[in-house]
UniProtKB/TrEMBL annotation:
This is MFS transporter. It comes from Niveibacterium microcysteis. It is a multi-pass membrane protein. Residues 403-793 form the Major facilitator superfamily (MFS) profile domain. Keywords: Cell membrane, Membrane, Transmembrane, Transmembrane helix. The lineage of its organism: Bacteria, Pseudomonadati, Pseudomonadota, Betaproteobacteria, Rhodocyclales. The keyword Transmembrane helix applies. The chain crosses the membrane at residues 21-42, 182-206, 233-251, 360-378, 443-466, 478-496, 502-522, 534-556, 562-582, 609-632, 644-665, 677-695, 774-795. The keyword Cytoplasm does not apply. InterPro entries: MFS, MFS_dom, MFS_Efflux_Transporters, MFS_trans_sf. It is found in: Cell membrane.
Length: 802
């Protein structure tokens, strides 16, 4: 019996950590494959909806052109006598069309393919959406049907009314059911296979270490293996995830082909029918097909409007091609006769583009690459938590390091919740603004971001003292709960001003969690351990900055910004639950005096403080907030790219920042001037924004964000360090709390002003001009800082020699 007990005691330390590592492996595998299935399904859904809208655009355009051609200068809409026949003809163009209506500016239906609808008033949502769209196409979706419309204008460019094509969604729902049926077994088997493979490679890594000394148990071997093989564990788990993603993506391509090709073929039939009808009318006027003029230009324009099509070929009665655009595909296209089928005047062949499908799958692969990068950081985060909190894996049971590792979990979750929203907050705010707002849209969109930043900037000093009085764990709970409520309210906001109020509440929650977590680090570390403690603190925020924006962009693209806010709220609630695992008696050892106006006036009179604050800290925060929080999310979407592309660009910034920060710290330790790191970092940050004045497109945005991450990584850490050196006398005179409190306050005010400044510049200079103008300001500040900081370079050189 005693031998059994000893055996159990030996086995427990070995198997318990292994179970936790297996849990991490399974979680990461399920995250990767689950996100892959999610992305593939919603990408298919998006492609399906896009194909339907593009298909319905054909009869919408045909009706609009027919009606506008029948209206003489200034004639009212009711005078278009040939409209009923036109509507009846276009109604037959697609079996999914239910009605085609034309309503005037008051919303009253003047003509309709359904005679019972004439004289009725269209729903208010149609009128509001049509008015907001202006000259652009508009679209509304209900559970079982959708409507697509376009404005009717006369020769004086006055809006007379709108064409509206209502169509059923039964075919789309059936295609989605088929796609779910195809993806479900792929996702299930992919998840199981990836999880099993991940567990096998974890077991393999743990059992490839050196054998323990004689007399040591399996527990010692497992603990040592984990402590020394974390990098190999991360690589092994990610290998399993990558293989799972590859297999799922390969299997999904066939599901895309089977389920999307019929929809694209329907689109080709509709386009072919529109082309054949136009040609039949021309030939019916006695013009021979070879004598038709401008046909290829017309076909080229049709193909430009419908990128899903590879080629359009018009043949005569003998099958000889007379007009053709595009490149012929290997597979034959859809054949549509010109004229009556029993007396065809020729035919139109329309081919579906395989390149279109490949480009769509390439976008999925880009999102999967984002998922993989997020999986890298998620795996590292989970493994660091396990190795820091499990006493069998070389962590002391009640050490400060264990408590900090436990604190990092709720901090990471809460910061992830806020970072998740970064990619879609500006676009969501623009949609809430409405068409009749009195404030400029470019400025108004920045208001929710500014309100959030302002609350964070002004709230941290009083919240720090409050959190120390009531207890840090309790303060973090309140902050997470406030953030949760704010995110839920943001998801339900009905207009911009209500949204601003909820974002202010989110800022209050953010500031509370931030200062409480910061106080937690101070309370549970000694002076010698504090640098490592703050590394954990900053690391959690930076990992959230890497993972949040791209995932938020993907969510906003596929399920909408409101659902994105809902997911963020759920993560904030999970952070609230994780805070409850912290010890109750987590209070600060000492209270930092609050910053007073007298302190602020005194430190503002010191030249080194002003140089570092106004020429380095404020410009760095200004370019960060204006680029990352405002310009990039809005600009990328304005180029026609999805919100996920903005999230990927923000991820590039965060990844470069995470990589460069420790490298910059090592450069400073080796004697590289912190003045040069700060000034050089500011100049590098500005290069990308200046480049956007010369090159437009999504690619240059990624380059600009990479340069911003590189520049911020070089300069951020050096600013605080240089401040403590250059202002050592002021710190002795006023105290570090007053000096750094003033520094942080002014720095955060620069953060808050960035979106408003960017919005004002967009109004006058456009997006590229706003990028370049802010970058020019930062570049000038960087050069001035380098030129005026000679005395600070001498201070650092003396410190290095000492």
């Amino acid at each position: 019996m005693r031998a059994k007990r000893e055996s159990a005691e030996i086995a427990e330390p070995a198997t318990a950590p292994l179970r936790r590592l297996f849990a991490v492996a399974i979680l990461v595998a399920l995250f990767g494959v689950g996100m892959s299935a999610f992305l593939n399904y919603f990408k298919f859904k998006s492609a399906l909806e896009s194909a339907a809208r593009s298909r319905m655009a054909v009869p919408v355009m045909a009706v609009r052109e027919g009606v506008q051609a029948s209206l003489a200068l200034g004639l009212p809409l009711a005078s278009a006598a040939a409209v009923p026949d036109l509507l009846a003809r276009e109604r037959q163009a697609d079996g999914a069309i239910r009605t085609i209506s034309i309503f005037d500016t008051s919303g009253r239906v003047r003509f309709s393919s359904d005679p019972r609808a004439v004289g009725t008033v269209v729903p208010a949502a149609w009128q509001a959406t049509a008015a907001a769209a202006g000259n652009d196409a508009w679209h509304l979706t209900a559970p079982d049907e959708a409507v697509q419309g376009l404005a009717l204008r006369n020769s004086f460019d006055l809006t007379l009314g709108h064409v509206a094509v209502g169509y059923g969604l039964a075919d789309q729902h059936l295609a989605l059911v088929r796609m779910r049926g195809a993806l479900l077994p792929i996702a299930i088997w992919g998840s199981l296979g990836s999880a099993l493979l991940a567990m096998l490679v974890v077991w393999g890594v743990l059992n490839t270490g050196r054998k323990p000394p004689h007399g040591s148990g399996l527990g010692a071997r497992t603990a040592g293996a984990v402590a020394s093989s974390q990098g190999r564990l991360v690589a092994a788990m990610l290998l399993a995830v990558m293989l799972g993603l590859g297999c799922v993506s390969w299997a999904t391509q066939h599901a895309f082909d089977r389920n999307l090709q019929p929809e694209l073929a329907r689109k080709a039939v509709v386009v072919g029918g529109s082309v054949s009808e136009l040609l039949a009318r021309a030939i019916g006027h006695g013009i021979a097909m070879p004598e038709l003029v401008g046909v290829e230009a017309y076909l080229a324009e049709v193909r430009r409007q419908h990128p899903e099509l590879a080629h359009i070929v018009v043949r005569d009665t003998g099958g000889v091609p007379r007009f053709a655009v595009g490149e012929r595909a290997a597979a034959p296209g859809v054949q549509v006769p010109i004229g009556a089928a029993n007396h065809a005047l020729g035919s139109v062949e329309v081919g579906v583009s395989q390149a279109y499908l490949r480009n769509m799958l390439f976008e999925v692969l880009l999102d999967l690459a984002v998922v993989f990068v997020v999986a890298v950081f998620l795996t590292r985060e989970l493994l660091q938590f396990i190795t820091a909190t499990d006493p069998r894996l070389a962590a002391a049971p009640a050490s400060g390091g264990t408590l900090l590792a436990r604190m990092r979990v709720p901090l990471f979750l809460f910061m992830l919740a806020e970072e998740l929203t970064r990619a879609f907050v500006p676009g969501f705010a623009r949609r809430l603004l409405g068409a009749h707002a009195t404030v400029s849209a470019d400025v108004a969109v920045g208001l929710p971001i500014t309100v959030f930043m302002l609350v964070v900037a002004l709230g941290q000093a009083p919240l720090a003292s409050w959190s120390e009085r009531i207890g840090l764990r309790r303060a973090m709970q309140w902050g997470a709960l406030i953030g949760f409520v704010g995110l839920v309210g943001a998801a339900l906001a009905s207009n911009l001003y209500v949204f601003m109020g909820w974002r202010a509440l989110c800022g209050l929650g953010y500031a509370t969690v931030f200062v409480a977590a910061q106080g937690f680090v101070i309370a549970h570390t000694s002076q010698a351990e504090r640098a490592r403690g703050f590394a954990l603190f900053v690391g959690a925020i930076m990992v959230a900055a890497v993972c949040g924006p791209p995932l938020g962009g993907i969510l906003a693209d596929h399920v909408g910004a409101r659902v994105g806010f809902g997911v963020a709220a759920a993560i904030a609630l999970a952070a609230w639950g994780a805070v409850r695992l912290l010890p109750q008696a987590a209070t600060a050892a000492s209270t930092t005096p609050a910053l007073t106006w007298r302190d602020l006036r005194r430190v503002l009179s010191e030249r080194p403080f002003l140089l570092i604050t106004l020429l380095a800290a404020v410009p760095a925060k200004l370019i960060l907030a204006s680029f990352c929080f405002y310009l990039v999310p809005i600009y990328v979407v304005s180029l026609g790219a999805p919100t996920a592309a903005a999230g990927r660009a923000l991820m590039v910034y965060a990844v470069l920042l995470v990589v460069v920060l420790p490298l910059a710290a090592r450069l400073a330790e080796r004697g590289v001037s912190q003045v040069h790191l700060i000034g050089g970092g500011l100049c590098v940050s500005a290069l990308g924004g200046l480049g956007l004045l010369l090159w437009d497109g999504v690619g240059p945005v990624f380059v600009a964000m990479a340069l911003l991450g590189l520049g911020q990584g070089l300069s951020i850490a050096a600013q605080s360090s240089l401040l403590s050196l250059a202002c050592a006398d002021e710190i002795r005179q006023y105290g570090s709390g007053a000096l750094f409190g003033a520094y942080r306050l002014i720095e955060r005010l620069g953060n808050a002003s960035g979106p408003l400044l960017a919005g004002a510049l967009v109004m006058g200079l456009g997006y590229a001009g706003a990028f370049a103008a802010i970058a020019a300001v930062v570049l000038v500040c960087g050069l001035l800082f380098l030129g005026l900081s000679g005395a600070m370079r001498a201070v650092q050189a003396a410190e290095v020699r000492a």
